[in-house]
Amino acid sequence: MPKIDESFTGQTVITTFETMPGTALELMDELKDAYENFIRHQPGFIAAGLHMNDAQTRIANYSQWRDRKDFQAMLRTAEMRERNKRIAALCTRFEPVMYEVFATY
């Protein structure tokens, strides 16, 4: 489970997916499968959370990694490249952005 804390020194990645109500659940299933069967087993993975808005037009993914290199290495694997093709087909766009925690309340 993700723990948001200012003392966290790893890499935080927040990815937003824009989708349609007709494909949102299928996209969520694809993301859940990726985490369950592949991503969470990769070196440096710490935790993640998946969120969907009420209109089923956006999915947000919050993930934590030991460091930036671990996240980038996971993205470069052949399996994740194939998974990202399927993910991209289910949304209009997605964008992973790396962040650092600055404050928590």
Present the secondary structure layout.
Blueprint: E1 11-18, H1 21-37, E2 45-52, E3 58-65, H2 68-76, H3 78-89, E4 93-99
Antiparallel strand pairs: 1-3, 1-4, 2-3
Radius of gyration, Cα only, in angstroms? Answer: 14 Å
- In DSSP terms (H or I, runs of 4 or more residues), the helix count works out at 3
Alpha-carbon distance between the two ends: 18 Å
Strand content: 25-35%
Task: Sum up the structure in keywords.
105 residues; alpha+beta; four-stranded antiparallel sheet; 3 helices
Q: What features would you describe in this structure?
A:
It is a single chain. By secondary structure, the protein is of the alpha+beta class. The chain has a domain at 32-58 and 67-99. It contains three helices and four strands. It has helices at residues 21-37, 68-76, 78-89; strands at 11-18, 45-52, 58-65, 93-99. Strands 2-3-1-4 form a four-stranded antiparallel beta sheet. A hairpin with a 5-residue loop joins strand 2 and strand 3 (58-65). Helix 1 (21-37) runs antiparallel to helix 3 (78-89). The chain is globular, with a radius of gyration of 14 Å. The mean pLDDT is 96.
Structure summary:
This protein has 105 residues and is α+β, with helices and mostly antiparallel strands. The chain has helices spanning 21-37, 68-76, 78-89, and strands at residues 11-18, 45-52, 58-65, 93-99.
